[in-house]
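Pipeline run #58 for the internal structure catalog. This entry was flagged by the ingest filter as a single-chain record with no existing model, so it goes straight to prediction. Upstream metadata was stripped on purpose; only the residue string is passed forward. Reviewer on rotation: M.T. Logging verbosity set to normal.
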Amino acid sequence: MATKQTARIAPTDDAAAPGAAPTGYLPPLWLAIVLAVTGAAGLLAAFTLAVERVHLLEDPEATLGCDISPLVTCSGVMAEPQARVFLDIPNPFFGIICFTAVLVMAALALGRVRLPRWIWTTFTIGVLLGLVFALWLWQQSVFVLGVVCPWCFLVYMTMSALAPTLTIWAIGAGAVPAPAPVRRVLARWGEWSWVVSLLLAMTIVLAIVLRLPDIPRFLILGY
C-alpha cells in the first residue's frame, strides 16, 4: 500500500516557516536599493572630500574644485575645527569607513542574506548617530560658519534619505526592539517612510535658503 506523503512548503526568503524560530531579518528589495544608492553617494562624497583634504595639506593655498563661491566652498569648511571632530582626524576619513559599512549591508540585502537582530539594531543605531552628526555639521556650517560645502550637502541629503527609511522598516519589522504599539504603527505606515525623508531634506534646503539667500541667487543668476 502506498504511503501518502505530507507536502511541505519551504519558507521563502521573506518569511520564516510557521512556528519556527526566526533565522534573521531581511529588508525588502526597495530598501536594499536605498542602502546601495545612499551608500555609494555617501562614499563618493567622503572619498572626494578626503582627497581634497590631502590637497590642502600639500598646499594650504590651493583652490579646490568644489570652491564655487565664498559661500559654497569646501576649503572654507575644512579649515575649521568642525571638520575634524574626532581625535583631530578629518571627518571624511571616518565617512569612508561608515559608508563602506552601508554598502556592505546593501550587498548582503541584495544577496537576500538574513542577518540577526543584533546586527540590524547596531547598524540602525549607527545610522541614526550618523544622521545626528550630519545634522550637527549642517547646523554648524549654515548657522555658525555661514557657508555650505557641496560634498557635505550631498552627505546631508544621503543621510536624510537613509536614516528614516531604515529606522522605520527596522522597527516595524522587529529588526530593532520596540514596544508592540510602535512596531504595529510603523509596520502599517512603513511604505510612507519616504515622506519623512523628503520633509527632512526640504527642511535642510529651506534653512539654507533662508539663512544664506545669496547662495540660491548665485547658483541661479551667477552673481
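catalog note: The chain is about 65% helix and 0% strand.
catalog note: Confidence is low (pLDDT under 50) at residues 1-21.
status: ready for reviewer M.T.
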